[in-house]
Amino acid sequence: MDILTHTLSGVAIGTVVSSFANSGFKNKLGIVLISGFAGALPDLDAISLWSGFDPTIGNLFNLSESGKDIYSAKFWYSHHAFLHSAFAGLLIAGLLGLISYLIDSKFKGLKNKSFLESLYQKRIIMIGFFLGFLIHLIEDMPTPASNWGGVNFFWPSKSYIGGTGDIWWWNNYDIFLIVFGVMVTNLILHLIQRFAHFDLRKFIVGVFIIGFSIAIIQIKTRDFDFAYSGHSIRYQEFEDKSKQQQKEILGDKLYRMMENFDNKLNIYF
Prior knowledge:
By secondary structure, this protein is an all-alpha fold. It has one domain. About 60% of the residues lie in helices and about 0% in strands. The chain has eleven helices and no strands. The longest helix is centred in the middle third of the chain and has 22 residues, at about 85-105. The model has no long low-confidence stretch (mean pLDDT about 95).
């Protein structure tokens, strides 16, 4: 799935997690933002496609394979491998917690607090980060198997999960609009709650569950099988079919709006 939908899915998760934080607006905003960052982070493993990868990172680590070959392979540092695992999410969350603890100890004079106490105090933001990271992995599972066969969710296990081909790699505008709707609705609920007292958590969790359920229905009711392994000579056919589906789902007017938005972006969307 595209990086924009991944990022906004992380933000949507952050709106849910932040509703459980008994803190001010600034801290809740921090949870939302770091969850969005986590939603994008797993695709950092696509850096091997960067044109400057071979003379820089490839040279630094004396890699014998080109970045393009690494991307499509099943090395632990390839795309959909280690950085697409639950372990990576937990490890990075822990590292961020450690960095935060060291900064607090050095610059904020909180030397009497243990590392575990610091982690407990920051547990909500770390949960937001992990869940934002996790939603990315889940969203990649319905895409085609290609060279990987899914995502290496249980790394260091060599098994890959997903790759079902229920949806195409990108131009899933309907899913994006669902994610965007959940995110905006929950952000508005957060703002309203500052002026009116109501059970914010129930509303926000409810909105997320409804949006998530609709997205699953949309994904599982596509009338075309995008599944393939390795490289596919039908790539363009699949891309064209995905766009045709979107036009049928969204209607001409909304589809044209989304396509125009897509064409203005310099990323796959």
